[in-house]
Structure formats: structure tokens, C-alpha cells
Amino acid sequence: MPERGRPRTFDRTAALRRAMEVFWAKGYEGASMSELTAAMGINSPSLYAAFGSKEALFLEAVELYTQVEGTDIWSALEKSPTARQAVERFLRQTAKAYSQTDRPQGCLIALGALHQDSSRGAICDDLRRRRAENRAALLRRLERGVAEGELPENFDCRTAATFYATVQHGMSIQARDGASRAALLATVAGAMAAWKVMAGRDAA
């Protein structure tokens, strides 16, 4: 029989994942404390005791998101044999991930918080850093394509990385607005049509 007065225990990892889903669906500002505690199955004092604050909870939820969601997107970028295939598979996996119906649509890192003020500067800074890291991953794969001779030496890797990162962010907004996977894949096709312009007409 449990001791009287013993603090209620809970599965911290499971609670964090449920908080992540609330933030993913509603964003930092849109997620109320009552919604978070209800989803996590705990009360406000327990939330503050375990995570410190709503801001700290959000930052931890974003870290979990990067570890468990969208991993196929980034593995496709790294494992594809050519830069072109890497970018196309990266976008196609994005379309698949963003349009799944058993979880919120779109990307938490792209949509979690966009407007910075003094009350959430750390949140916006963290998301901005993560978006920059994602763009840097695209840049490294394109630079590898140049180093391996697939892409011409004058290929503008930085502009291309920014372009395809922007396409991905736009797909996140499309998905949140209800775009189907087919619609997202049509965006992928359009983005890849620009590849030959950037890489040269003879690029595959």
C-alpha cells in the first residue's frame, strides 16, 4: 500500500512526448497550461517541479522532436548517392512526414514560434538555430556534390541550400493548412524542376 503523502509519480518521458504533441499542434503561444497538464496527466505544480517552466518544457519538447521525428528526412539527405537524389529524397520524405494523419501536420521547428519578443526570445533563438543547422546540413551535402565532381565548381551551394530549406518550410505551412501528400509532392516536383537551372542544363 503506498505511503500517505508520497508525491505522485509519472512517466516523465511519456509526459514530455504528449507535451511535444500539444506544442506541435498549437505552437508555443497557442498551447495553454491547462491543455499541457491535461495532455501530460499531471497538475501544474508537478509540471513546474519536473520541467521548471513552460519555456523550459517547450525547449525540452523541441529537443525530443529532433530526436524522434523526421529522422528519415535527414537520413535520406546523407545516404543518397548523388546530391540531386539527396535533395529530392529529402523533399519527398518531408512530404511524407508532414502529411501523416496520426500526428500534427507540418514541422514544430518551422511553426512552433515565429514572432520574437522579450518573453520568448530564448525559444525563437533556439528554433532559429535549429533551422540554421538544417540549412547547414543541406549546404554540406551540396558542397560534397561539388567536391565529388557531380556539380560544377561554380555551383552556388549556399543559395541552393537556402532555396530548398525555404521550400521545406513552405511545405510545412501547406501541410498545416491541410494540403494532401499529393499536393506536397507536386511542390517537390516543382522545386526539382529548378535543379537543372541551378546545376546546369546537363545535370541529371
UniProtKB/TrEMBL annotation:
<keyword id="KW-0804">Transcription</keyword>
<keyword id="KW-0238">DNA-binding</keyword>
<dbReference type="Pfam" id="PF00440">
    <property type="entry name" value="TetR_N"/>
</dbReference>
<dbReference type="InterPro" id="IPR001647">
    <property type="entry name" value="HTH_TetR"/>
</dbReference>
<dbReference type="GO" id="GO:0003677">
    <property type="term" value="F:DNA binding"/>
</dbReference>
<protein>
    <submittedName>
        <fullName>TetR family transcriptional regulator</fullName>
    </submittedName>
</protein>
<dbReference type="InterPro" id="IPR036271">
    <property type="entry name" value="Tet_transcr_reg_TetR-rel_C_sf"/>
</dbReference>
<dbReference type="Pfam" id="PF16925">
    <property type="entry name" value="TetR_C_13"/>
</dbReference>
<feature type="domain" description="HTH tetR-type">
    <location>
        <begin position="9"/>
        <end position="69"/>
    </location>
</feature>
<dbReference type="InterPro" id="IPR011075">
    <property type="entry name" value="TetR_C"/>
</dbReference>
<feature type="DNA-binding region" description="H-T-H motif">
    <location>
        <begin position="32"/>
        <end position="51"/>
    </location>
</feature>
<keyword id="KW-0805">Transcription regulation</keyword>
<dbReference type="InterPro" id="IPR009057">
    <property type="entry name" value="Homeodomain-like_sf"/>
</dbReference>
<dbReference type="InterPro" id="IPR023772">
    <property type="entry name" value="DNA-bd_HTH_TetR-type_CS"/>
</dbReference>
